[in-house]
Write a structure and sequence with these properties.
alpha+beta; Jelly Rolls
Amino acid sequence: MSTIFIPKHIRPMHGRLAYNDCALFHDMTNVELDTLESCADQTKCNAGDYLFRQNAPSDHVYNVISGTVAIERVSNNGRRQVLGFLFPGDFLGITNSAHYDYAVRSLTKTELYKFNRKRLYTLADELPHLKTNIAEISSRIFNRILDQLYILGQKKAHERLCFLFMQLLERLPGARPDRVELYMTRQDMADYLGLTIETVSRSLAKLKADGLIAFPQLNVLQILDIAKVSELADT
């Protein structure tokens, strides 16, 4: 079986991929994976690089192999909104539009699979598992958008930060309560949570004063009271 686009920590098992977080590959046979490889390539970005800019032609679908990226959108008056943070196993670029309506910026050194979008969608009509997996990925993206809309409309500033921290704990590889790497800046957090950077700073100070979190290093978070942080983050 060809494995050009399969990470080293993924191993075939009984004709299937034993990597549950990589949704595109779920339940696909070795033959199907060989077919999928025909539209796959690999690309890399350094921290600060843009994978693509807003309004660029939507020619590809990407899967993050390693690293962290931010999805962002800029309004006509120049205001930026961070729409989400993506980690290994996450996908971006799944759209039926001719152009991307957002930009993707690497927060760290990042490796991604790059799939030709039209070829991928054509294969989805031929491979039932692939079509199901793309639908599942789209559903996950939609659910994350709903969660974000909810916290922007219903949560206080410090609760929004708790929501972000629980997202990172759940989705960032290697994250654990006593050590969560923060690859985004305070401004990135603010633009994601619909806050000002000053409000983010005050809210972090409140959470620290309440004994819920600590920062043993500048960009390393410790969650000291996981039950309370989870309660505040609850959607």
